[in-house]
Write a structure and sequence with these properties.
Elements lengths: L9 H10 L9 E6 L7 E6 L7 E5 L13 E3 L2 E15 L6 E18 L2 E16 L3 E8 L2 E6 L3 E8 L17 E2 L13 E2 L1 E10 L2 E8 L17 E2 L4 E2 L9 H6 L1 E3 L8 E9 L4 E10 L4 E5 L2 E5 L2 E13 L2 E16 L5 E15 L7 E12 L9 E13 L4 E10 L4 E13 L2 E12 L4 H4 L5 E9 L1
Parallel strand pairs: 17-21
Antiparallel strand pairs: 1-2, 2-3, 4-5, 5-6, 5-30, 6-7, 7-8, 7-9, 9-10, 10-13, 11-12, 13-14, 14-18, 15-16, 18-19, 19-22, 20-21, 22-23, 23-24, 24-25, 25-26, 26-27, 27-28, 28-29, 29-30
């Protein structure tokens, strides 16, 4: 049998299910499933097929920072296992690329303990391996913590202390209200949003107030973005060609970049705080965000012969909404931010105000299994002086997914197209899904554009990948 419910009732059902004792045959199954705007649906599976009783598997979005779904060992309420594994081989297709091929591997695991329904403890870690060969060879193995925390759940309160991954916002892949997460830039644009974020230290308090949810976050210790190796094709400073991401080489002398000392010093102290309130109305789901945080992605400031990384604090005020009209989900999001780093034409540094906005629609044409998600996003600096940065950026992006052969295969296309300047990113992929939860895939990443755009800077990083991935 199957039971499905609205996500708003999930906390109550979690407690209720934990108190139940099931005696069922191997065929009995209860599924309680729900989701968020920007993540895969959450799912609880209670399977009575084991003689010793039911087993509860919980799989929620990364933003919720909960226990993993799969365990290799279960002893009462203690679970330990592998959550995510991946291996990829990539071949760079552009003749100007500094690398010929790339290898990437990842293993993420966690241990979770719930001594009683009110308390939960988790330790998580990951290991990533990178290798590129070409004119600038490198290989490295990095270990990192994952979502590791102590959590208390009350009747109307959830408090989580530790390292967590929290992604706010309404739009897919490019949520504008995402102000408390730490970016993972180690593989450039290759990964999906959830794989382009790292866990960071925070105190998070969640509560239901006035018919909605209030989410409060304090970033106890600032964690800057995880950067690629300096010899990687994804590093935002190309010293071989004397180029800096986001700038025209005619404006910034290549010799300055080639000879510059790169100082990636991170500021001390906390990363700031943020608050987000969401509520579902009959006409739409509404969200509001207020944050005063440092941006995790570095901005390179020229100081003499040094490129010094800046992480300015910025106030952000955002509002977003989603509604269902004509069998399609329509999304809108707008954010004002106070201090955005820019470089004047004399290479001096300053900050300016900015507004980012986006609208999107997600639909299933013909009520079929195919999914189409389309978005228009704009970024406009306010009162900017004469600068080298782009003061206006407009992009059209989205994703098309088509399952076939009884959903054993999936063809997809992710894309991002610049509207004010040539900026192209295309990511077609074909994946075999018949070996669940494993996926075998072949994908391409094509980048092209003007010299001061993302696609133009990374055009030499166009590549074809084959690999295997699994999330348990």
């Amino acid at each position: 049998m199957s039971i499905r419910c609205n996500p708003i009732f999930r906390p109550l059902l979690l407690v209720s299910c934990a108190a139940l004792h099931f005696q069922a045959s191997a065929a009995d199954e209860i599924i309680i499933d729900g989701g968020t705007d920007n993540a895969a649906p959450a799912e609880i599976v209670i399977d009575g097929g084991q003689p010793s009783g039911g087993e509860i598997l919980i799989d929620e979005p990364a933003a919720a920072a909960v226990a993993p779904a799969a365990e290799t060992h279960t002893a009462g309420n203690f679970r330990i296992g592998i959550d995510d594994v991946r291996f990829e081989y990539g071949s760079f297709t552009h003749s100007g690329s500094a690398s010929n091929r790339a290898l990437y591997g990842k293993v993420a695991a966690s241990a979770n303990w719930q001594p009683d329904p009110a308390w939960e403890m988790q330790l998580a870690a990951r290991v990533d391996g990178y290798e590129e060969d070409g004119s600038d060879d490198f290989s490295k193995l990095d270990g990192d913590y994952g979502d590791s925390f102590v959590r208390y759940r009350g009747d109307n309160l959830k408090v989580t202390l530790g390292t967590q991954t929290v992604i706010w916002g309404r739009l897919d892949e490019l949520p504008l209200s995402d102000r408390v997460s730490t970016a993972d830039l180690t593989r450039g644009v290759v990964d999906d949003l959830e794989d382009r974020r790292r866990s960071n230290p925070m105190l998070r308090v969640e509560s239901f107030i006035a018919g909605g949810k209030l989410d409060l976050v304090w970033l106890m210790d600032f964690r800057a973005a995880e950067m690629p190796d300096r010899d990687s094709v994804w590093y935002p400073v190309d010293r071989r060609k004397g180029r800096l991401l986001g700038f025209d080489p005619d404006d910034v002398p290549p010799a300055l970049i080639r000879n510059a000392v790169i100082d990636e010093d991170e500021p001390d102290g906390d990363g700031g705080f943020g608050a987000r309130y969401t509520r579902s109305h009959s006409f739409a789901d509404i969200g509001m965000t207020v944050a005063h945080t440092r941006q995790s992605m570095p901005y390179y400031r020229a100081v003499g012969n040094t490129l010094h990384t800046e992480y300015p604090r910025s106030w952000a005020f955002g509002i977003d909404a989603a509604t269902n009209i004509a069998d399609a989900i329509w999304r809108i999001e707008a954010v004002y931010s106070s201090d955005n780093p820019v470089t004047r034409r004399d290479l001096s540094y300053t900050t300016v105000e900015a507004v980012q906005w986006g609208v999107g629609v997600e639909m299933h044409p013909g009520d079929g299994d195919a999914r189409v998600n389309l978005q228009l996003i704009g970024s406009n600096l306010i009162g900017a002086p004469h600068i080298l940065d782009r003061s206006e950026i407009y992009t059209f992006n989205g994703e098309i997914e088509i399952p076939f052969d009884r959903e054993r295969w999936r063809a997809s296309l992710d894309f991002n197209l610049g509207l004010d300047a040539k900026d192209v990113y295309l990511n077609p992929e074909v994946a075999f899904l018949g070996w669940e939860p494993h996926e075998l895939f072949v994908a391409a990443h094509y980048l092209e554009g003007s010299v001061n755009t993302l696609g133009g800077f990374y055009r030499d990083a166009s590549m074809v990948n084959v690999g295997w991935r699994a999330k348990f």
